[in-house]
Amino acid sequence: MERVMGGGGLQLVLFSAGLLLLYRILVRLRTGAALQDAVVVITGASSGLGKECARVFHAAGARLVLCGRDAARLQQVVQELTASSTSSRPQTYTPCTVTFDLSDTATVDGAAEEILKCYGHVDVLINNAGISYRGNILDTHLSVQRDVMETNYFGTIALTQALLPSMVHRRSGHIVVISSVQGKIAIPYRSAYAASKHATQAYFDCLRAEVEHYGIPVTVISPGYIRTSLSVNAVTGDGSKYGVLDKTTAAGREPRDVAQAVLKAVRQRSKDVVLAGAQPNLAIYLRTMWPALFFKLMSSRARKERKPKDE
Ligand SMILES: NC(=O)C1=CN([C@@H]2O[C@H](COP(=O)(O)OP(=O)(O)OC[C@H]3O[C@@H](n4cnc5c(N)ncnc54)[C@H](OP(=O)(O)O)[C@@H]3O)[C@@H](O)[C@H]2O)C=CC1
Ligand SMILES: CCCCCCCCCCCCCCCC(=O)OCC(=O)COP(=O)(O)O
């Protein structure tokens, strides 16, 4: 009897070890999803996180289509990438560029056609371009609320919808959007930005459910602060440029590290990734699990940050 139990035990151990090995192989296969030769479109590729994404996807052997508003700055990125290329593996490609303004949604269909002409199809669309905002709601023109929404939300979804049919037709593709922690929680003096990122989260969550059966994954990435020019480029309530590198931005994560995390999320076809520290994660948790406390914390934050002008 003991011998039978012993044999059964051994079989169970071997079976579990086999399962574990299979799981590890599957995880490794997922981690290694190939980007060599993949056609990767990156918006907002002329600076900050977009430019770093261009570097890491280029180094991984992707065929890039870099998008932005300024042709000369995009060309500068192309030159930097090609200058850094070596002849060693993986094989790298000189990126294509497409210049357009996302806030001018009427031009986005034409831009999508140009994007498709580069390599005939798109494997990965990384919706990264965006603009932030600083201001209190009382002093903010409605046109500013609209402008931020045009770039961050309508421009992004217009490009996505223009490229989606070709992905559906091929039953292949991957859509990524760079949202923000502020797509999950709203903090004071960021109404236009937080609203645009919440809308982004909702839209891409709907899209994920709708296109999964075509084999098209959707990845929403929500970073905390990154050391870029986002705050410098932010708009204020009257539409003027904020122009200040905030301490929170300056102390943010290195764009290179965030770009590596984006690459990993694409390889793993992750659905929803928060790239932030303990405090923002706790805040996201409280917003759902203990909203009353979250709202109190945000009110107190608003009082502390209130400028003399608001009194
Ligand atoms: N930095 C941070 O702390 C965080 C950033 N994010 C998100 O990361 C993304 C990248 O921002 P980041 O790199 O930080 O900031 P940057 O200001 O450095 O980059 C923003 C990019 O978006 C492009 N862009 C802005 N407006 C438009 C437009 N109307 N049409 C086309 N392109 C446009 C800019 O291109 P152009 O050359 O034309 O100006 C620029 O390349 C944004 O979506 C942002 O919300 C998320 C969390 C934290
Ligand atoms: C009982 C103890 C509770 C402690 C809870 C801590 C709650 C702290 C609040 C944390 C708020 C985090 C805000 C993070 C915002 C962020 O990372 O935004 C990323 C951006 O998109 C930055 O854009 P911006 O233009 O705002 O610089």
What do these coordinates show?
The structure is a single chain. Helix 2 links the parallel strand 1 (39-42) and strand 2 (63-68). It is globular, with a radius of gyration of 22 Å. By secondary structure, it is an alpha/beta fold. The protein has ten helices and nine strands. Ligand LVWHZ4SM binds at residues 132, 180-182, 187, 190, 193, 224-225, 230-231, 234, 246, 248-249, 276, 279-280, 282-283, 297.
In short:
The chain is α/β, with parallel strands linked by helices and 311 residues long.
Arrangement of strands in the largest sheet: 3-2-1-4-6-7-9
Count the strands? 9
Would you state the CATH class of the largest domain? Alpha Beta
Beta-strand portion reads: 5-15%
Largest sheet features: 7 strands, parallel
Bound ligands, each once: NADPH dihydro-nicotinamide-adenine-dinucleotide phosphate, ligand LVWHZ4SM
Named at the architecture level, the CATH assignment of the largest domain is 3-Layer(aba) Sandwich
CATH fold annotation of the largest domain: Rossmann fold
Helix content: 40-55%
Number of domains: 2
Function: Putative oxidoreductase.
InterPro entries: KR_dom (IPR057326), NAD(P)-bd_dom_sf (IPR036291), Sc_DH/Rdtase_CS (IPR020904), SDR_fam (IPR002347)
Keywords: Membrane, NAD, NADP, Oxidoreductase, Transmembrane, Transmembrane helix
Domain Ketoreductase: 38-229
